[in-house]
Write a structure and sequence with these properties.
The complex is a heterodimer of chains A (308) and B (222).
Chain A lengths: L5 H8 L3 E6 L7 H11 L5 E4 L11 H10 L4 E6 L5 H13 L4 E5 L20 H14 L15 E6 L9 H11 L3 E6 L3 H13 L2 H4 L1 E6 L5 H10 L7 H8 L6 H18 L3 E6 L8 H7 L10
Parallel strand pairs in A: 1-2, 1-8, 2-3, 3-4, 4-5, 5-6, 6-7, 7-8
Helix pairs in contact in A: 6-7, 10-11
Chain B lengths: L1 E5 L2 H8 L4 E7 L2 H4 L5 H17 L5 E7 L5 H4 L3 H4 L4 E4 L3 H10 L4 E4 L1 E11 L2 E6 L15 H4 L16 E2 L2 E5 L1 H11 L4 H4 L26
The chains are: A alpha/beta (308), B alpha/beta (222).
The structure holds iron/sulfur cluster (2 copies).
One iron/sulfur cluster binds next to helix 8 of chain B.
Chain lengths: 308, 222
């Protein structure tokens, strides 16, 4: 099933895909999203819109997607299993497709313990692999999970995330294999700092031929400071920041650390571009969207291909 | 076994405030094993209550009684001859026992002295750990004998989330990641091929989501 997704079209053309993300605000002000959007115009092919990231309540992903869509973006609707059961998930999938959203990213979701409402009840009616399968069933078979026919199939390009740095490492490629089997078409990875481990993971992915079935976009996040690097290393679950990176940032003066962070990020992208099977770059500059253009430019990712 | 934790004395005293004569009911089963609601704990709690109330000048009479089980009416019936002498019953059995006592003595106030917490095992003296959520459709044959429903913080059926790190769960560095345990066990059993299979979306009708559950065994009915 062909979608209108920019990611799908650029993957097909064989060019590198560039995506970034936009975190919705903790309020109802649409201007915040528009401002972030402006910083990304002409820099990315599609933009992720996070879904109550780190379990902190924010403007809904779908609403922020629509705001970005109206600015000319091809948004990627992130959807987590934490907050919705299969009824709500399928309903939101239909709603997104009706609003012209072309991409969905199926995620497990962080545990609510990390957010601003740790006392919430979580849902996890399905997991991310089952969500991928749900979207595929709705789109390709035109059926709800309950078996009833859908009038007006949701035509969405299906994505997922994978963390090559989480454990158990040996099943991380197998897990992507399950996602591919379920119907995933593109994949964005967790931020890559430990290149050796990422290359090992890619090798396992290639051994299974998964790089040919799934468009893999390698994730990067620039460090603003050594403090941020330390925080990510010690406090963000599943993040692998090697000590050399911390040392390198520590080695420069405080006011130069953000520049060094950008430099590391650009070097990382250049290395990633050389790895067989990497089909794109996902730049997550968390609350630092103004730097995405500079990073993309320096890494030779601009201009982005014109799509008819 | 069913594992429960005693409520704090403060909470219990607040519930007991209006009463001067209570019946304190323990249970000889699970809550005895997890050292929360057996005969010994009944004795300790009774003294604590009486002492605190005496200090406040609000003497209270506490009758101590530990039943064989609070989830069977024949045992609950044993207190029928004298239950009328008491204003309230404080039960420190599991939630099922507490409710069954309340069901049997409809005109008595029944108060919970414990928080019933999980179905689990004794890891070592004084340490208990959750193992099952009674989902009604067991998948342990697919997951190396480790329950993904009760032991994964997100009840994931197809593998670990991105937060699993060094064998620990993202929710708590002290908590084992269920999926690490599953993978380790599948490897030991030479069943890693099981991991490749997608487990389809679960039918939760057999779980709490399907409404309160009841089981009838016609062959056993009188
Ligand atoms: S799968 Fe269900 S029945 Fe089996 S151990 Fe887990 S919660 Fe209990
Ligand atoms: S870290 Fe492991 S146990 Fe914890 S939520 Fe993720 S998969 Fe489940």
């Amino acid at each position: 099933m062909k979608t209108k997704s920019n990611i799908e079209r650029i993957l097909e053309s064989g060019q590198l895909v560039v995506t970034s993300e936009c975190g919705p605000p903790r309020g109802a002000d649409a201007e915040v999203i528009k401002k972030k959007g402006k910083l990304l115009q002409g820099v990315v092919d599609a933009v992720n819109v996070t879904d109550n990231q780190t379990s902190v309540v924010r403007m809904s992903s779908l609403s922020a997607c629509l705001i970005l869509k109206e600015m000319g973006f091809d948004p990627i609707l992130q959807m987590v299993c934490r907050d919705r059961n299969r009824i709500a998930i399928q309903s939101d999938i239909l709603g997104a497709a009706a609003l012209g959203i072309n991409n969905i990213l199926c995620l497990t979701g962080d545990h609510q313990k990390f957010g601003d409402h740790p006392k919430a009840k979580n849902v996890f009616d399905m997991d991310s692999i089952q969500m991928i399968h749900t979207v595929k069933t709705m789109r390709d078979e035109g059926k709800f999970l309950g078996g009833e026919e859908i009038k007006g199939k949701p035509i969405l390009f299906i994505g997922a995330a994978e963390n090559p740095f989480a454990d158990p490492f040996e099943i991380r490629a197998a897990r992507l294999g399950k996602k591919a089997k379920a119907g995933v078409q593109f994949l964005q990875t967790q931020c890559i700092y430990n290149m050796a481990r990422f290359e090992k993971w890619m090798e396992m992915v290639r051994d299974r031929g998964l790089h040919e079935r799934v468009g893999i976009l390698a994730g990067v996040t620039p460090f603003k400071s050594v403090g941020m690097a330390r925080y990510m290393k010690n406090s963000v679950p599943g993040m692998d920041v090697p000590d050399e990176m911390i040392e390198r940032l520590k080695g420069v003066a405080k006011e130069k650390q953000s520049e060094e962070g950008i430099r590391i990020c650009v070097e990382t992208i250049q290395k990633l571009k050389q790895i067989p099977g990497v089909r794109g770059i996902h730049i997550m500059a968390i609350e630092w969207e103004e730097k995405v253009r500079e990073i993309a430019e320096a890494a030779g990712l601009l201009p982005r291909p014109e799509l008819a | 076994m069913i594992v429960a934790n005693r409520k704090t004395l403060e909470e219990i005293l607040t519930m007991l405030k209006p009463y001067k004569k209570i019946l304190l009911l323990g249970c000889n089963e699970c809550v005895t094993v997890c050292a929360t609601g057996g005969e010994r704990e009944v004795g300790v709690l009774a003294s604590e209550i009486k002492l605190s109330r005496a200090k406040e000048g609000q003497e209270i009479e506490v009758r101590e009684q530990t039943l064989e089980r609070q989830c069977d009416h024949e045992y609950i019936d044993q207190v029928r001859p004298f239950v009328g002498d008491y204003e309230a019953i404080l039960s420190i059995a599991c939630g099922a026992g507490i409710q069954y006592v309340a069901e049997k003595y409809r005109n008595k106030v029944v108060l919970p002295g414990v928080n019933t917490t999980f179905l689990g095992v004794t890891l070592e003296q004084g340490v208990w750990s959750e193992r099952c959520q009674g989902c009604g459709e067991c998948v342990l044959h697919l997951t190396g004998g480790v329950c993904p429903i009760a032991r994964c913080a997100k009840s994931l059926l197809n593998g670990p989330c991105g937060g699993s790190s060094n064998g620990k769960c993202e929710v708590d560095k002290e908590l084992e990641c269920a999926w690490q345990l599953i993978v380790d066990r599948l490897k030991e059993l030479n069943q890693m091929d099981k991991y490749e299979e997608i487990i389809p979306i679960k039918d939760w009708t057999t779980s709490r989501d399907g409404g309160p559950r009841k089981r009838i065994r016609e062959d056993l009915r009188l």
